[in-house]
């Protein structure tokens, strides 16, 4: 992984590298290219990046499973690849979520013991202890919206637990459809970084956008940029 590259080449710059995760029984190439972020305390494997509307994230299950976009720009690495990296429980992984707003501010959330389940579990999310200054949006601001332990939902595969979910006078049945993107939704919840991207001042839609509710108000604010990345410890 990126950490092993950093260990061998301590001065290696950030960029695209080839790694060899544990891909047994996986139906894709053994060696995979990833973007390694070497500057932010080093050796992170980036699996999500948003900064503009050029790359749409309003896609179906197969796209999120396999990955899309360009590694040097906005992209989603692919749930199968992240699962392959994190499935060995003898190794521990940290998830870091970096957030930027349209006013020049930034914040981050970090989680210990990150891993994903296999596809049969809908790539169920597991995170451990939270740290950072963005707040723990994965576990949510309110009771009943904890996304930890939930499977991934897309516009064509619903695992969000809504049948429906009632929010005031709104009855929500598919969080992925209303948010414009996919996520580990739990009664929709307080985090959703794969929705529609909006420029400054265009935070339209009560759910559509890039949201981290414990840092910025869920509606109508949509973040300028996000980055999700993992590293082994």
Structure in a nutshell:
With 233 residues, the chain is an alpha+beta fold. The protein contains four helices and 15 strands.
Indicate the topology.
Layout: H1 2-8, E1 15-19, E2 32-37, E3 44-50, H2 61-66, E4 68-69, E5 75-76, H3 79-86, E6 93-100, E7 106-111, E8 115-116, E9 125-126, E10 130-132, E11 165-167, E12 170-172, H4 175-179, E13 191-192, E14 211-212, E15 225-232
Protein name: Fibrinogen C-terminal domain-containing protein
InterPro entries: Fibrinogen-like_C, Fibrinogen_a/b/g_C_1, Fibrinogen_a/b/g_C_dom, Fibrinogen_C-term_domain, Fibrinogen_CS
Keywords: Disulfide bond
Q: Can you give a write-up of this model?
A:
One of its GO terms (biological process) is regulation of immune response. This is Fibrinogen C-terminal domain-containing protein. Residues 1-233 form the Fibrinogen C-terminal domain. InterPro entries: Fibrinogen-like_C (IPR036056), Fibrinogen_a/b/g_C_1 (IPR014716), Fibrinogen_a/b/g_C_dom (IPR002181), Fibrinogen_C-term_domain (IPR050373), Fibrinogen_CS (IPR020837). Keywords: Disulfide bond. Strand 4 and strand 5 form a beta hairpin. The protein has one domain: Gamma Fibrinogen, chain A, domain 1 (Gamma Fibrinogen, Chain A, domain 1), CATH 3.90.215.10. The model has no long low-confidence stretch (mean pLDDT 88). It contains four helices and 15 strands. It starts with a helix and ends with a strand. With 233 residues, it is α+β, with helices and mostly antiparallel strands. Strands 1, 2, 3, 4, 5, 6, 7, 10 and 15 form a nine-stranded antiparallel beta sheet that branches. The protein has a two-stranded antiparallel sheet with strand order 8-9. Strands 11-12 form a two-stranded antiparallel sheet. The chain has helices at residues 2-8, 61-66, 79-86, 175-179; strands at 15-19, 32-37, 44-50, 68-69, 75-76, 93-100, 106-111, 115-116, 125-126, 130-132, 165-167, 170-172, 191-192, 211-212, 225-232. It is globular.
